[in-house]
Specification:
Number of strands: 8
Function: Removes the formyl group from the N-terminal Met of newly synthesized proteins. Requires at least a dipeptide for an efficient rate of reaction. N-terminal L-methionine is a prerequisite for activity but the enzyme has broad specificity at other positions.
Largest sheet: 5 strands, antiparallel
EC number: 3.5.1.88
Distance between the termini: 37 Å
Strand content: 25-35%
Radius of gyration: 18 Å
CATH architecture: Alpha-Beta Complex
Low-confidence stretches: none
Enzyme class: hydrolase
Order of helices and strands: HHEEHEEEEEHEHH
Number of helices: 6
Helix content: 25-40%
CATH topology: Peptide Deformylase
Family: Belongs to the polypeptide deformylase family.
Number of domains: 1
Catalytic activity: N-terminal N-formyl-L-methionyl-[peptide] + H2O = N-terminal L-methionyl-[peptide] + formate
Mean pLDDT: 94
Length: 221
């Protein structure tokens, strides 16, 4: 499919953002669910197509949408916009046991523009993961334990940072969205569980019990 022109992109973003008066504050956008082609096509690089004011407004509404879902990351294709843009933020309000097992630490709000990542070292980690575009389901995904993220922020400043533990998982998940990849493409499908079962049965800090009971291997190497 041919990439959108600048005019088509701005018209699309304006149609999504128009609604309640700005005085009412940002309103969450509908989240696109799996099956929509926008989630399966590589997003276009952001090259200033929206202009500063429109981009700032879009970022603000994406953050509100992420909070309302609730989630810890949201990519632009998840709200129907085919651009390499994502937001992440994680208060990491979890128990000390979960924090230790998953290396989950708070992450401040940040905007990722044209992000890419590369693994650092051979370490891998396997945990249950979900997605706002695949509501009601979770599955175990093996991901790089440490990654180097490159890209820009919303002001065009260069990003070159290292992430480890759960923050590295968030970065990988959201950046994958921008290439048309869903977490299910990488998941151990025997682990696929409804959120109901994931919470009731497999909420331990690690998926070891789920691996034993559901019959899959936690291959992290």
């Amino acid at each position: 499919m041919q990439a959108m022109t600048r005019t088509e992109l701005t018209d699309l973003v304006d149609s999504l953002l128009d609604g309640p008066s700005p005085l009412d504050g940002p309103s969450p956008l509908p989240i696109v669910s799996a099956g929509d082609p926008v989630l399966r096509r590589p997003a276009a690089p952001y090259e200033g197509q929206l202009g500063d004011a429109r981009l700032e407004r879009l970022v603000r509404v994406m953050r509100e949408t992420m909070h309302a879902a609730p989630g810890v990351g949201l990519a632009a294709p998840q709200v129907g916009i085919p651009l390499r843009l994502a937001v992440i933020e994680d208060p990491a309000e979890v128990s000390d046991e979960v924090r230790a097992a998953r290396s989950r630490v708070p992450q401040p709000f940040r905007v990722l523009v044209n992000p890419s990542y590369e693994p650092l070292g051979d370490g891998r980690a396997a945990f249950f993961e979900g997605c706002l575009s695949v509501p009601g389901w979770q599955a175990v995904v093996v991901r790089h334990a440490r990654v180097r993220l490159r890209g820009q922020d919303e002001r065009g400043r260069e990003l070159d940072e290292e992430f480890s533990g759960w923050p590295a998982r968030i970065v990988q998940h959201e950046t994958d969205h921008l290439g048309g990849t869903l977490y299910l493409d990488l998941a151990e499908m025997r682990s696929l569980s409804s959120t109901e079962h994931a919470v009731a049965r497999w909420s331990q800090p690690t998926p070891a019990l789920a691996a034993e009971e559901l019959g899959f291997t936690l291959a992290t190497r």
